Amino acid sequence: MITTPRDGELAKGKHAVRGLAWGGEGGIARVEVSTDGGASWRDAVIEEPREKWLWVRFYAPWQVDQPGRYRIMARATDEHARVQPQIPWNFQRKHFDGIVGVDVEVK
Q1: pTM of the model
Q2: Terminal CA-to-CA distance of the chain, rounded, Å?
Q3: Nearest to 47, CA basis, from 69, 24, 31
Q4: How far apart are CA 6 and CA 83, in angstroms?
Q5: With the C-alpha atoms ordered 36, 80, 78, 92, is the resulting torsion angle positive or negative?
Q6: Strand order of the sheet with strand 56-64?
Q7: Domain range for residue 62?
Q8: How far is CA 35 from CA 8, 10, 20, 25, 82, in A?
Q9: Fewer Cβ neighbours under 10 Å: the N or C end of the chain?
Q10: pLDDT tens digits, one per residue of 15-72
Q11: What is the CATH number of the domain that holds 21?
């Protein structure tokens, strides 16, 4: 889950993509961030503490030099190598573990 930046406008420059991840049945082993709607992914830094049953914080620096609309996404992998799926939104809001993107516009 992306917590920063949220939907809205940003200036060009350096930003921190921040968020939270939780594995449910296993601790978080890896978090990846995409700033191009899932076309490419790069590793984020998982912050301490990294407790198995708790949410973990993560961040990834992001240098953006071109104005435009960007979709920021994060996906987690747990200690059992299960990768968070990129599936359609579950409108019933139950048992949903998909990736939810955040749209931002860079001016």
Answers
A1: 0.87
A2: 24
A3: 31
A4: 23
A5: positive
A6: 2-4, 13-21, 56-64, 45-46
A7: 2-86+95-106
A8: 14, 13, 16, 27, 22
A9: C
A10: 999 999 988 788 999 999 999 999 999 999 999 998 888 999 999 999 999 999 999 9
A11: 2.60.40.650
